[in-house]
Amino acid sequence: MIENRGPSCLIVGNYCHDVLIKDDTVIGESLGGAASFISGVLDGFSISSAYVSKVGIDFSYPVIHPPLICPSSKTTVFHAHFSSDIKRDDRVLKRVCACDPITPHDLPNSHFSFGLAVGVGGEILPETLEKMLDVCDIVFVDIQALIRVFDSVDGTVMLVDLRETGFYRLLPRIRFLKASTDEAPYVDVEEVRKYCCLVVTNGKEGCTLYEKDKAQQIAPFPTIQVDPTGAGDSFLGGLVAGLVQGLGVPEAALLGNFFGSLTVGEIGLPKFDLKLLQRVNDEVQQMLLQCTGCPEGQNGELMFMKSFDHEQFHIALGAAKLTSTHPIQECLRDLPRLHTAEQSIHSQCSGRQKSLSSTFYEEDEWTGEQKLQYADVPADIEPEEIRPMGNYAVSITWADGFSQIAPYDQLQTMERLVDVPQLI
After folding, report:
1. H/E element, 142
2. What range does the domain containing 376 cover?
3. What's the pLDDT score for residue 345?
4. Of 254, 261, 257, nearest to 294 (Cα)?
5. What's the rounded Cα separation, in Å, for the pair 117 and 80?
6. Would you tell me which of 28, 103, 218, 275 could form a disulfide with 253, CB atoms 3.0–4.6 Å apart?
7. Among residues 140, 116, 147, which one has the least CA distance to residue 52?
8. What are the C-alpha distances in Å from 254 to residues 145, 186, 289, 421?
9. What is the pLDDT of residue 322?
10. Distance of CA 247 to the CA centre of its chain
C-alpha cells in the first residue's frame, strides 16, 4: 500500500451542467463533470482528496468540494441527446458552453499519492498534466481528457488519435490510462501497454487490464442501463478508492466496475446509499484481511496479480448491489429467527437445492427468463455449504465450486422451498 502524505488524491477536472434530452425534449438536468461523480465514491470511503475545478458565476449546484469561480466565464454545459430510435443505442454528446481551462498555476504545490486527470470539456492542458505528473506519485488519466475535440458549429464531441495531441509525449510518465471501447481505437493498445496500465471499460462486459504482456478480464455487475453519463468517472473513483486502501489492481478494478454499474442505473448523478457504502467498505476490509493470494509488492509497488479471493470478493460485492437494488430488510426485523431459517433452508436444500442455482445461474441476465425449470433438476443434487450473510441472504457453495448469494425473500417464493419460515 502506497504511503499517504497529506490528502491521498488530487482530482483535476471541471464541474459542469448536464442536460439530458430525449427525442428533443429535456428530461433532466443535473450536476455533471467527472469530479462530481468521483467525489461521490471517494467521499463515501472518507478518502482525503483535493479538487481543482473551474466554473462560471452561473454555477447552479452546491458541492462539498468548492470550485474556482471564473468571473468572466460561464460554466461548462453538455447536452446529452438520446433517441427512441431502436437503431441508436447511445447518446450524442454536445458541449454547448466551455469554462476556462485549468492551468498549472491553479494546482496546489503539495505532494499527492494519486492524481486523477479527468477533464471532460478540454479543460486540461498538456502543461497542466505535466505538473500533475510532477506532484503525484501515480497519475490516472481518463483518455477523454486528452482526445476529445468539439465541433465548431454545434459542439458535438469528436475524438482524435492520441498521437495527434500534445499529450502523447507524456505517455511514458502516466501510470494508468482509462478508455472505453469506443475510445480505445484512438490509442495504440500495444504501444500504450508498454508504458502504463491501460484499462478498457466495456459496459456490461466489465473491463480489461492491459499491462506489459498481460491482459486480465475483470467481471461485470449486470445492471439495466438508464443513463451512461459518469459511469467511467465512477469506475475511476472505485478503482482509486480500492488502491488507496491497499487492494491489488484486479480487486480495485472490480470495485470500479461495481460503482460504474450503480451509476448507469440512475439518471444523472447517482445517490449512493450510506448503508451500501458502509457495507462495501466492510467487504473491502474483509478482502484485505483474507487476501492470502496477493503478496505484498516490493517498495510499495502495485500488485497486478488476481488474489485467490478475487472471485469471492466479486460475489460479496454482487450481494451488496443486490440488496441495495432489491431491499428486503423490512421483512427481516426478527433477527433471532435467522439461525432457524438457515437450518430450515439447509434441510430443504438437501436433495433438491439445485433449483436455487437455476434462479441465479440459469436465468437470462437481461430478460429474466428462467432457462432451467424445477422439474429438470435431479433430486440428488445438494450444496456443500450454506452460511448466513448478515440478515439478508445465505451464501451457497456447490460441489463444482460455484458459489452464489440467495436472498431470503427469493427463497421464500420458490416452489420447492415452501417450508422456509417467513421472517417478519
Report:
1. strand 136-142
2. 329-417
3. 41
4. 254
5. 22
6. 218
7. 116
8. 23, 25, 17, 35
9. 79
10. 15
Using an 8 Å Cβ cutoff, are 253 and 176 in contact? no
Could you tell me if 72 and 216 lie in one domain?
yes
What secondary structure does DSSP assign to 351-404, as a single string? TTTHHHHHHHHSB-TTT--B-S-GGGS-TT---SEEEEETTTEEEEE-TTS-EE
- Residue 366 sits at the vertex; the CA angle it makes with 37 and 253, to the nearest 5 degrees, is 40
Amino acid at 214: K
User: C-alpha grid cell for residue 295?
Assistant: 503478496
Q: Which residues of the chain have pLDDT under 50?
A: 1-4, 88, 292-293, 295-299, 326-368, 390-391, 418-424
- Number of domains the chain is built from: 2
- In 3D space, the residue among 152, 146, 142, 80 whose CA is nearest the CA of residue 115 turns out to be 142
Instruction: Answer yes or no: do 272 and 347 share one domain.
Output: no
Catalytic residue among 18, 142, 227, 233: 233
- Whether 233 sits among the annotated catalytic residues: the reply is yes
pLDDT at 225: 81
pLDDT tens column, 157-207? 999 999 999 999 999 999 999 999 999 999 999 999 999 999 999 988 999
Q: What one-character DSSP code corresponds to residue 177?
A: E
